[in-house]
Amino acid sequence: MLRVAGALIEAEAARDNAGWCLPEYLWAPGRVLIARLRPDRRLAGKWELPGGKIEPGESPAQCLVRELDEELGITVSVGQWLATNEHDYGNGPLALEAWHCRWESGRLSPIDHDAFAWVEPGRLLTFDFALADVPLIHAWIRHAAYV
């Protein structure tokens, strides 16, 4: 089974979004960063938790640090695991793990995405997420209600 790590990215202060964030969804305390897949990508137009495929011998934390640097141009610290969801888009099962991350440095320079949004938990379900991400978004909403 393919293992994939997704990041619930939070920040303690405003971050330079390089104009890639939707204007009504700029950084604010308590929001997480989500990303929309470019028109030429699989699942184009869907929103997702940024991240990527966990390589053999790589931990989820190592994967997220590598992927977020390569694909977003940012440095994160990886915290606690939140939840895992198994899904199959028709080309084999995947296990998507969601991890809390903290944006430490960098400036968004997207490769696979065309927009970003900093979203508070109560508004996340208004976005059209990739199906594998939806149960993780529900887990984050439940978690945020108790923090």
How are the secondary structure elements laid out?
Elements: E1 2-10, E2 32-37, E3 47-48, E4 51-53, H1 60-72, E5 74-88, E6 93-106, E7 113-119, H2 134-145
Parallel strand pairs: 1-6
Antiparallel strand pairs: 1-4, 2-3, 2-7, 5-6
Mean pLDDT: 95
Query: CATH top level?
Result: Alpha Beta
Summarize the amount of helix as a percent range: 10-25%
Quaternary structure: single chain
Walk me through the structure.
By secondary structure, the chain is an alpha+beta fold. 17% of the residues lie in helices and 38% in strands. The protein is built from 2 helices and 7 strands; from the N terminus they run ββββαβββα. A 4-stranded mixed beta sheet has the order 4-1-6-5, sandwiched between helices. 31% of the residues are buried.
What characteristics describe this protein?
3-stranded antiparallel sheet; alpha+beta; 147 residues; Nucleoside Triphosphate Pyrophosphohydrolase
Outline of this structure?
17% of the residues lie in helices and 38% in strands.
